[in-house]
Structures are given as C-alpha cells and as structure tokens.
Design brief:
- The chain is of the alpha/beta class.
- It is built from 14 helices and ten strands.
- A five-stranded mixed β-sheet has the order 1-3-2-4-5. It has a five-stranded mixed β-sheet with strand order 6-8-7-9-10, covered by helices on one side.
- Bound molecules: 2-acetamido-2-deoxy-beta-D-glucopyranose (NAG) (3 copies).
- One 2-acetamido-2-deoxy-beta-D-glucopyranose binds next to helix 7.
- It catalyses: Catalyzes the rearrangement of -S-S- bonds in proteins.
- Belongs to the protein disulfide isomerase family.
C-alpha cells in the first residue's frame, strides 16, 4: 500500500508543467510575445543537487500552474550554447527572466541566490514580480533540505548538523514539523549549527537509512563536529526540549526565541565559591586562594579578571561602569557572536553584583 502511494505521488508530480527548454525553443518561450516571466533551471543530469531540487521544482510548477509565470528547465549537457550564453558555472542555477522581449538584456534577468527550498523560490519569484497568487503568508524556511546525494558534503562543513528523517505519510512527522521549523529559526544566526531534514518520500535516501540504521520516522540525529553521532531519545519533541538538546550538545545557550539565556557565561562551580567568600571579601589571602582555584577551571578568564578587581578594591566602580558600557554597546548593530559575548559578560557581572555588594 505504501509503495502504491509513493508511486501515485511520483506519477502526479511528473504531470506538473515544467516546460522543457532546448536550444531551439529557448527564445520563443523565454522572450514570449505576451511578456510572461519565466523561471529557468539550468541543470545537468549527473548533478546531485539537481536531483534533490527536482521534486521541489515540480511543486513550484504546480504552485504557478494557474498564473502567467512559466516554470522551465534546460539540460545543459544537450544544450551547451544556451548555457554558455548565460555563463552558467554550476548546477543547478536558476534565473528569473522577467518577460520582456530581450532575454539578453541583463536588466531583465534576476539570479536566484538563496538556499533552494520551496518557500525561498516562491518568495524570490513573488518579490520580483507582481504576481497575486493567494499564498499563505510564510517566511522562508530555515531548514536545510538534504538527500543522500549531498549529505556527506553538508556533514563535512565543520558544523554541528542536526537532522530529522521524515516521510510525508508519517503523522508524527507532520506534528513535529512546526517545532522543527522554529528550531531552525532559533539557531538561524549560529554559524556553527545546521538544522536539516531528509524528507525520505521525495529524495534519494536509502543509503542514509541503512548507514544510520533508521527504522522509523521521525528519527532525529545530531552529527557533531567532533564526529559524535547522537540520537534524540526524549519522549517530548516540543521546541523547548529540542532547543535544550541542541544547546547542551553544541555548548550554546539559546532560549526558545533565539535570544540568550540568563545562564550563559556563568560557571556554577565558581559561583558557588564566590558565595562562600561573600562574608570575607576584604580578606585578600582568601581572594588569592580563590584566584588560584578559579584559574584551574576552563573558560574562567573573565571571572579571574573580576576577582582581581575586588583584590585591587576597584570593583565598586568597575562593575557598574562595565554594565553601563556593555549595555550601550548592545545598541549597536552586532553579529550573533558579538551579542552572545556581551550577554555572557553581563550575566557574570550581574552575578558578581548580586553576590559581592
Ligand atoms: C514583444 O514583441 C512583440 C512583437 O514584436 C510585441 O507585440 C510585444 O508588445 C512585445 N512585448 C513586450 C513586453 O515588449
Ligand atoms: C538573526 O539575525 C537577523 C539579522 O540581524 C535578525 O533579524 C533575526 O531576528 C535574528 N534571529 C534570531 C533568532 O535572533
Ligand atoms: C562578528 O564580527 C566580528 C567583528 O567585526 C568579527 O571578528 C567576527 O568574525 C564576526 N563573527 C561572525 C560569526 O560573523
């Protein structure tokens, strides 16, 4: 029964209206007299990313089947002159021809540059044209769609890769999907994290399932930069549990809004020692002992600096001044790692003000 369903699915999608372009018909389709715009996918039959894209591309064709937008593709191996005319260097390349008569005019062609998801493609087309197709408002997905053809390449990027393996007939997968989407948003600015999906109904996947012994859907695996492979085994698959799992595996402190938690930067072991010396903060011997202990703890440089401020009697001006200064810096435009660093420092500074003063 399942095979039959997949077969029907393939049959239906192969009926979608992707226009096949050749050297002969290219100009008449792309520079058509009606001025209709055309999205063209330049591809090669041997290219793995093209195979991954194929089912998505057919969905795009279906999406625009009732509109003036033409969805087309051209095989660059059998139509080299066209592909060299447009200086195609990699596959797949997608260009939107805006539908004026002169397809050679660079003004009439826009290159697609973002990641190749259905939502991104629709956003790209709609934002370049004034098409009015009733679509559900949705921001582009941050989930990286993966197949067995590009899995190893994506995994080898020195990032922590978290992948959910799904199938379109699986109800638990459907239920998980919004949370997985939110998870990808939470970590969208963490350049070391990839949140991906292998949607096994529409992409090649068999070797992956056997390699990782995947027998049910959804299965969630984490592939860490250090080579560890982790399986997500929690009963709950809600956003908060997923975020905590990624945080603890990847040493991050995201909250479910993508902000940083108030625990980031703190080292509980040192906080405990600080609590113990609270009553003796004028005892320099004790403070020096503390510095010696703290030095042995990994990542404790900032703590050490602040304890030295206490020893030098500067902390009562330094700590509030530093909190003010960092809060001012936060008003600037900063990238994620700068933001994180400042928030971590602020958390430590606040811990000191609560314990020491
Ligand atoms: C394209 O060319 C045809 C024939 O020359 C002309 O009738 C039509 O208006 C042109 N369309 C656009 C969008 O310029
Ligand atoms: C990621 O960065 C962009 C640009 O600064 C920002 O608009 C977006 O809200 C950030 N996302 C998260 C989850 O913080
Ligand atoms: C963030 O900005 C700093 C300073 O401009 C830069 O050194 C750092 O590489 C940037 N980090 C990322 C992840 O872009």
């Amino acid at each position: 029964m399942r095979n039959l369903l997949i077969y029907c699915y393939l049959l239906v999608s192969s009926l979608a209206n992707v226009i096949q372009l050749t050297t002969k018909n290219f100009d008449s389709v792309v520079s058509n007299p009606d001025g209709n715009p055309t999205l063209v996918k330049f591809y090669a039959t041997w290219c793995g990313h093209c195979k991954t894209l194929a089912p998505i591309y057919e969905e795009i064709a279906q999406h625009y089947s009732e509109s003036d937008v033409q969805i087309a593709e051209i095989d660059c191996e059998s139509n080299r002159p066209i592909c060299s005319q447009f200086k195609i260097k990699g596959f797949p390349t997608m260009k939107l021809f805006l539908g004026n008569n002169d397809s050679d005019d660079a003004e009439n062609v826009v290159d697609f540059k973002s990641s190749r998801s259905k939502a991104n493609l629709i956003e790209f087309i709609d934002s370049n044209l004034e098409v009015s197709i009733p679509v559900v408002e949705s921001s582009p997905s941050k989930i990286v769609q993966i197949s067995e053809l590009d899995f190893d390449e994506i995994k080898s990027q020195d990032k922590d890769l978290y992948v959910v393996f799904t199938a379109n007939w699986c109800q638990h997968c459907l239920k998980l999907h919004p949370d997985w989407e939110d998870l990808a948003k939470v970590f969208e600015n963490d350049s070391n994290i990839i949140i991906g999906e292998v949607e096994t109904t529409s992409v090649p996947h068999k070797s992956l399932l056997s390699r990782y012994n995947i027998k049910s859907f959804p299965t969630i695996l984490g592939f860490l930069q250090n080579g560890d492979i982790l399986e997500y085994n929690f009963k709950e698959r809600d956003l908060s549990t997923l975020v905590k799992w990624v945080n603890s595996n990847s040493g991050l402190f995201r909250d479910i809004d993508g902000g940083i938690s108030s625990e980031a930067g703190l080292i509980p072991e040192i906080d405990k020692l600080l609590g113990e010396i609270q009553a003796y903060q004028d005892d320099h011997g004790l403070l020096h002992d503390l510095v010696n202990k703290v030095e042995k703890i990994e990542g404790s440089e900032y703590y050490k600096k602040l304890i030295n401020k206490i020893i030098n009697g500067e902390h009562q001006t330094y700590i509030p001044g530093e909190i003010d200064r960092l809060n001012k810096i936060l008003k600037n435009k900063l990238n994620q790692s700068q933001l994180d660093n400042i928030h971590k420092r602020l958390n430590v500074l606040k811990k000191f003000s609560s314990i020491i003063f």
